[in-house]
Structure formats: structure tokens, C-alpha cells
Amino acid sequence: MEKQTRNPSVLVIGAGMSGILMGIKLREAGITDITIVEKGDGVGGTWRENTYPGVSCDVPAHMYAYSFEPSVGWDDRFAEGAQIRQYFQQAADKYGITGLVRFNEEVTAARYREGRWRVTTSKGAQLTVDFIVAATGILHHPAVPDIPGLSDFTGPSFHTARWDHSLDLKDKRVGVIGTGSTAAQVIPALVNQGVPVSIFQRTPQWMFPRPDAHYSPLYKKTLARFPFLATLIGRLWAWYYAQMFAKMVIGKPVQFWITDRIVRKNLEKAVPDPALRAKLTPDYRVGCKRLVLASDFFEAVQQPNCELITDDIYHVEADGIVTRDGHKHPLDVLILATGFHHLNFMRPMDLTGRDGMHIEDAWQQQCLNYRSVTIPGFPNFFLMTGPNSPVGNFSVTRVAEVQANYMMKLIRRWQKGQFDAIDPKPAAAESFLARIKANMAGTVWTGGCQSWYLDPTGTPALWPFTFGQWVEEMKEPNLADFDVY
Ligand code: NAP
């Protein structure tokens, strides 16, 4: 085979939104040697794992869909989780991705040796590939809080990403720990079903009213007739989110002021009782923690079957939670809406790059990366939605598309024989991160709160510039920033 037409073998890890996307892009480029390894039993990633009541998108579904695959069938502007999962299943089927996936198999180790990646899976399979794309997602390792006595609880207890659907919660007193984006969806869903809920809030959240809408049959019929309208609506929402939230978080004064006014007014209007309102009022800047988009949380908190507990949790007992004030809150079921280990990325995979460099050593201090998609010392290894991706309150699908195009440009150069291996220079990665750090000061993420955005050094692992600038900088890889061999 001629050098110009080399057909690389590519392993994609994960068949969620970004893994399916990468499969589509690789196939579009005519690459045939593609393997996708998925530890779950189906595609859909986070939408397969998160099936808790109330799960839905908190960006408009039209902008969450792939830009090249508009959906004309959304039932709601903020579509329910099951429908989003179905969307990705249909996309995987339509683009011939499902057949490439090895389900119920996990990549346990990958080692770069003699110019190629040697991969081991949980089923003992050994694969040798030219490229690895870790499309392993950000939020899929549930964080179980380190609360004394948690394991002593004798009733059912589970994380929101591991929902136990066999359980009938009717007439059970349910405790929910956490008030993040997940809790803001699950709590109203439970309260509206009449389930008695005790919310354990450590930190209140700013909540932006979500402009919900249920789409009529006429709307869907019109989109089915003119699918370009779905694309257009997705683009308009993406433009609005890029102008509004993506600029608010990096501290643009007008967007910040508008958002700040809206969340304060929202709280004031929704919660007339000043004492309850005080408990629900954050003491940090809006956007510092990921802005929660929810319309029904405050309403749920004020229902007679819902109780807001703001005293710190002291410990858990067999049948309830004891708070610092010494009060015991009896519970039948305990739900952990406590978030994820967001810095795991592809870990706990045993990943060893060039010259025996292990990922745990490479990332001991910080998640050193170049442009979120590559790691020095790990040649021909790509990350989807890696550290410092611009993921805060924006469509992660749009982010993944830009990254997939960037990776495809590098893979195409490999196909043309311009190099066998590409590895970002440590200096390029360090200057990329130094520039990011130097520009974090003006962002809302440094606004005096604890959040999952922060890395172990307390620096937000995000992008402190506009989304437009990021797209511009990701247009063309700069080969001078890579060692190629
Ligand atoms: P999260 O935002 O990290 O929130 C975790 C919650 O658990 C916080 O309220 C936290 O309190 C609380 N918590 C953690 N440990 C605790 C402890 N030991 N004691 C008491 N409280 C504790 O997690 P999440 O709500 O699952 O959301 C994570 C991310 O997933 C979101 O930011 C978003 O990006 C994504 N998400 C998206 C959607 C969507 O619709 N697209 C829906 C859900 C989630 P503190 O605030 O005090 O730390």
C-alpha cells in the first residue's frame, strides 16, 4: 500500500456521544480499521447510565444534537434522557457505528511500544493499534462522599447514576444529598410524585429559570418537512449560549450582570419566605459552580412533602442522618446526588506512554495536556472533552465536534505519511496551561466556591476565553508544537 493511503487502525474507547461521533468521522474519512470498546451494554454513555427520574438535557436538545444530524423529533426543548439516548442509538445505527462496538468490555491497559499502542481489555483480548481516542467522558465515575457511617445505612442507598428502578419509593422517606444539576432535576421529579423528600444541602446553588417548552405535533411535523429548520434552531441556540453563558462565565460584564439579575430575581420571585430564601441564597458569584438551569426546584422545595436541611451532615446511622445540630432525620432510602470524579478522564486505565511514562506520574501535579486533546509523552493518543475543554454551560456535543475535526486533521497527515507518531512538546503543553492559568483571574470560576471545575491545584480545568476563540484556535493543528517522528 502506498504511503499516502495508509489506513490506520484506531481504537475508540467509549460509545457515548463523543465515541460515536469519532466513529462517524473516521468512517467518513474512509478509515476501515476501527474498533470501539464500550464497558456498558449499549451506546449512549451518560444517557445510558443516568436514568434517574427527571433526567433531561439542560441545554436545548436542538443544540445538543450533532450539527450534521439534526433531530426533528424532540418532544421537549430540554429533551428527556431516554429520548437523547435513543437519538444517539439511532445515529450509531444510521452511520454504521453500532456494529463496530465491542460491548461489555473495558480497556484495562494500554502501553505504547515500538511505535504502536498495545491494548489489553477486561476480557483478556490484546489489540495493537496506531491511534487511541479516549472518548471516556468527564462525568461517569460516581463520587461517593466520605461521610462517616455511610455504609451503616441499612435501607437502599445508591448514587443517582446507578438508579434502582426496582424500588417503589411511594411512602418511603427519601433523603437526597446534594443540590447540583442532578439533584435539581431529581428532587422535583420525586416531590411531584408525592414522595416525601429530605434534601441535605451543603451549599446553595444559583438557579437560572429553564425556558421549558413541549413541542406540538405541528412543530414536529413542520421540522420533519423542513429538517433544515432543526439545524437552524440548533445553530441559533448555540449562538445564544455562546454569547450569553459562555461569555458570562469568563467574566464579560454585561452577560454577567444580566445572569446575576436573572438568578437573583428568580430566587426572590420563587421563594417569598425570607428565612427559606436566605437558606437558598449562595454566597459566591453566579456561575462559580456550574450554573443550574431549573424551573421547578424552588417550587418543589416549598411543597409540604419536601424538607430542606441545611445543617451539616454529622454522620449516617442505620436508619437516618444525624446533622451537626444533633437532630436525627429518619430515612428509608438514601440517594447520593453527589457528582462525579471529573478528573479521572480515561483513568483508572493502566496507561503507559513513551519511555515507560505512566499517566499517574504524568498527571501527578495537574492534567498536563496540549489543547485538551493530547498529552506529552503519549504519542498518537487523543482525548475527547479532555481537561480545559470549554464545557461549562455549553453543548458538549459542539465541543466534541471541533475536537474530532482537529484529531482527524492529524490522522490525515499520518495517512499521508507526514509522520508515524505525533507527540505534543512538553513546552507547548506547559505554555498552553500557563496561558490558561494567567487568564483565569477574571472568570467566575474563581469566585469563591468549591466546584467540580477545580483541579487539585485549585485551578479551574476549563477554557477562560470565548468559545469563538477556541474554535478559531482549534481550526488547524500547529505541527511546530509537536514532536513528530
Ligand atoms: P455536582 O454538581 O458536583 O454536585 C454535587 C452535589 O453534592 C453538590 O451539591 C455538593 O455540595 C454535594 N455533595 C458532595 N459531597 C457532599 C458531602 N460530603 N456532603 C454534602 N453534600 C455533598 O454533581 P451533579 O449534580 O451530578 O452535576 C455534575 C455535572 O453533571 C453538572 O455540573 C453538569 O455538568 C452535569 N449534569 C448535566 C445535566 C444536564 O442536564 N445536562 C444534568 C445533571 C448533571 P457542595 O456544592 O457543597 O460541594
Shape: globular
Tell me the Rg in angstroms: 23 Å
Unreliable sequence segments: none
Characterize the biggest β-sheet: 5 strands, parallel
Helices and strands: which structural class? Answer: alpha/beta
Please describe what this structure looks like.
Helices cover about 30% and strands about 15% of the residues. It has helices at about 15-30, 45-50, 60-65, 80-95, 180-190, 215-225, 230-245, 245-250, 255-270, 275-280, 295-300, 360, 395-415, 425-440, 465-475, and strands at about 10-15, 35, 100, 105-115, 115-120, 125-130, 130-135, 155-160, 175, 195-200, 205-210, 290-295, 305-310, 315, 320-325, 330, 335, 350, 380-385, 420-425, 480-485. By secondary structure, the chain is an alpha/beta fold. Helix 1 packs parallel to helix 13 (about 395-415). The mean pLDDT is about 95. The strands form 6 sheets. The chain has a 5-stranded parallel sheet, covered by helices on one side. A 5-stranded parallel sheet has the order 8-17-9-10-13, with helices on one face. A 4-stranded mixed sheet has the order 6-5-4-18, with no helix packed on it. The two termini are about 20 Å apart. It is globular, with a radius of gyration of 23 Å. A hairpin with a 4-residue loop joins strand 15 (about 320-325) and strand 16 (about 330). NADP nicotinamide-adenine-dinucleotide phosphate (NAP) binds near residues 56 and 337.
